[in-house]
What we know:
66% of the residues lie in helices and 0% in strands. The chain has 159 residues and is mostly helical. The chain folds into 2 domains: 2-94, Cytochrome C biogenesis protein (Helicase, Ruva Protein, domain 3), CATH 1.10.8; 105-158. It starts with a helix and ends with a helix.
Amino acid sequence: MNRFCVAALLLMSCFVMPAAAVIETYEFSNEELEQRYQDLSAELRCPKCQNQNIADSNAPIAQDLRKRLYQQLEGGASDGEILDYMVARYGEFVLYRPRFSGATAVLWLAPVLLLLAAIVLALLVLRRRKDSGERTGGELSVAEQQRLHTLLDESESGS
């Protein structure tokens, strides 16, 4: 019974460990700054986690980014200035929605170009089907009709 209790306590402690993660709380000078903090922290990607924003990540670098974001907001920086700073420091990757530039043009234009290519391909396939359908199921030309009559006459006279 004693071993069972120790094993159960160890197992329960494994589930409690993640709850002990550090969560920062910042005191903002007004509610507008707090809302901007929430919006920006949801917009910035954690460089380590790659698929989490800095608001959801517990990585040390995300904690540093949240602290820097708080400092800049309290320092009076605009959203654009904060985003420019983060991009200059961590690259365009830190933004969930990268800005349109020469380096990111493929990201923004690829879906549109692929859609246009698919439409053009579908139209070409449909046109080819229509053209081949007219040739095989349509009327015979005069030369084809004469050839057909000749073959029919030969087969009737031969039988």
